Amino acid sequence: MLAVWGLLDTRDVKSLNVPRTLLVSAANSIAVLTFALAHAVRWPETLAMLLTAIVGGYGGAQLGRRLPPNVVRAGTLLLSACITLAFFIKTYATGRCL
What pTM does this model have? Predict the structure, then answer.
């Protein structure tokens, strides 16, 4: 989301963090509620992921505040491209596409 907004908007990437955080939080809250109501949650693993997500989110926010906007933008775009490439390779290079 932030990578796309970074490409479409010329504002400082850091100023886009607040609306991104709100939208991601809303979407994740709905997903959590849906899975919990469906009894599809493994709580020990969920709690471990919750703790590490909090630590990573806090650390990422601290890092994002200290880095220049162009570094944050380049890092976001690079990470997004690498993830896209990894999924493409996993899907199509192995010959097991749906």
Answer: 0.49
pLDDT tens digit string along 52-73?
Answer: 999 999 998 899 889 998 998 8
Other beta carbons within 10 Å of 13: 23
Domain, as residue range, for 11: 2-93
pLDDT in tens, 6-47: 777 777 777 777 888 899 899 999 998 999 999 999 999 999
Count of the separate structural domains present in the chain: 1
Residues with Cβ within 8 Å of residue 13, at least 6 apart in sequence = 2, 6, 69, 72, 73, 76
Question: Does a structural domain hold residue 58?
Answer: yes
Specify if 81 maps to a domain: yes
Of the candidates 10, 14, 11, which has an alpha carbon nearest to the alpha carbon of residue 76? 14
Q: What is the CA radius of gyration of the chain?
A: 17
Q: State the DSSP code for 90.
A: I
Answer yes or no: is 98 within a domain. no
